[in-house]
Amino acid sequence: MTVQTLVEELGWTILTEGDLTKEVTGCYCGDLLSWVMSKAQDGDCWLTVMGNINAVAVAVLTDCACIVLTEHAALDEDAKARAAQQGVTILTTELNAYQAAVALSERL
Amino acid sequence: MESIKLHYDVSADDFTRAGAASGDVKRTLKQLGVSPATTRNVAVAMYEGEINMVIHAGGGEIDVEITEDAIRMVLADHGPGIENVELAMKEGYSTAPDNIRCLGFGAGMGLPNIKKYSDEFKLETELGVGTTLYLTVYMK
Q1: How far is CA B72 from the centre of its chain?
Q2: Which of B22, B47, B48 to probe the A interface (max A CBs under 10 A)?
Q3: Contact residues, chain B, for A82 at CB < 8 Å
Q4: What is the CATH number of the domain that holds B84?
C-alpha cells in the first residue's frame, strides 16, 4: 500500500507532502528518537507525538514512509518547513498510537 | 576509487542543524550507490554522534573518509569528557537534562547505538579535554 492509498483509506490529513507513491511496508510506534532511529525500518509508517525538527531528521535517516502525528500532536513550524524541504510526508490523525496502529494493521 | 573526504563543523546547542552532517553523508553514499544497509549504519552512528556533540559537548568536528571498502568517521569534541565510560555505554543510562528529554532525546541509546551500528568503535575521552570517537563501517 502506498502512502497515498493510506491517506485515502484512513482519512488521515496531509500536513506536508513528500513521496506519496512510497510503499508502506510496516509500522513503528515511538517517541524516543534514538530508539526510533535504531529500530524503525525503511518503509515504516512512524506513529509519534514528536512533531519537532529532530523527528524530521530521524524520518530522513531511517527512510520511513511517513510520520503520523497521533492525537493531532503539534507540528512545529520549523519542522514543517524542514519536512517540506526534505520531502518528508507528515500526516495527522485524532487517533492515538494504539488505534492508529490497529487501523493500519488491518490494511497492511 | 579515490577516497572521498568530507568535513563538518557541528555547532553547539543548535538542534535545528543537528542531523545536517549525517543527512549529507547519507545523500553522498546514496549517490555513490552504497548499499542501503551500509548507508543506514553510517547514518545512525553519525546522527547519534552529532546529537551527542550538541547535547553534551558544545559542538565539535566530524571528518568522514569514504573508500572502496569502508566509511571511516572521526568525531571530535572539546567538551567535558565522559566521566564513566562503562555507564555511558549502557543502554538506558543518560545524563541529558530534562529540556533535552522533552525534545525526544535522552533515551540513553546514543553511544550504544553508535557501537551497535559500527564495525569498529574506539572511544577516547579525557575529563576537561574532550571526547573523540573513531568509527568504521565496512561496505556491505
Answers
A1: 11
A2: B47
A3: 16
A4: 3.30.565.10
